[in-house]
């Protein structure tokens, strides 16, 4: 695998690792798209503002070596996907753990 796919591969791995939480443990995150979008939107906005500000100020940068190259408003496409994937995986985990705990009592 070329290194430029590294970031994208990590995001894909995060989604694949948490996907069973939806179907095996019944997290019901993908089945409620409106609720999921409303839960992810604040994190998306916070991450975007933070990253855009930090990148603009030179606090950090994104390696061309590990990203595909296309950028939106100065951030790699993978970074924008990160703003969706990480909160989605966290939400899946939260819902699955809550479901397991509710059924355990």
Automatic annotation (TrEMBL):
Cleavable signal peptide: none
Domain of life (superkingdom): Bacteria
Record's keyword terms, sorted: Carotenoid biosynthesis, Isomerase, Membrane, Transmembrane, Transmembrane helix
Example GO biological process: carotenoid biosynthetic process
GO molecular function: intramolecular lyase activity; lycopene beta cyclase activity
Pfam families (alphabetical): Lycopene_cyc
Entry's transmembrane regions: 6-25, 37-60, 80-101
Keyword DNA-binding: no
GO cellular component: membrane
Pathway the protein contributes to: Carotenoid biosynthesis
Keyword ATP-binding appears in the UniProt entry: no
Bilayer disposition of the protein: Multi-pass membrane protein
Localization in the cell: Membrane
UniProt xrefs under InterPro entries: Lycopene_cyclase_dom (IPR017825)
UniProt domain Lycopene cyclase: residue ranges: 7-96
Protein name, as recorded: Lycopene cyclase
Organism: Rhizocola hellebori
């Amino acid at each position: 695998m070329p290194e430029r796919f590294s970031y994208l591969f990590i995001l894909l791995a995060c989604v694949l690792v948490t996907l069973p939480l939806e179907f095996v443990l019944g997290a019901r995150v993908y089945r409620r798209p409106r609720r999921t979008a409303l839960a992810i939107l604040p994190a998306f906005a916070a991450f975007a503002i933070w990253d855009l500000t930090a990148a603009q100020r030179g606090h950090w940068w994104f390696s061309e070596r590990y990203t595909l190259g296309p950028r939106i408003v100065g951030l790699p496409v993978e970074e924008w996907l990160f703003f969706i994937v990480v909160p989605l995986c966290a939400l899946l985990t939260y819902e699955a753990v809550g479901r397991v705990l509710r059924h355990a009592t």
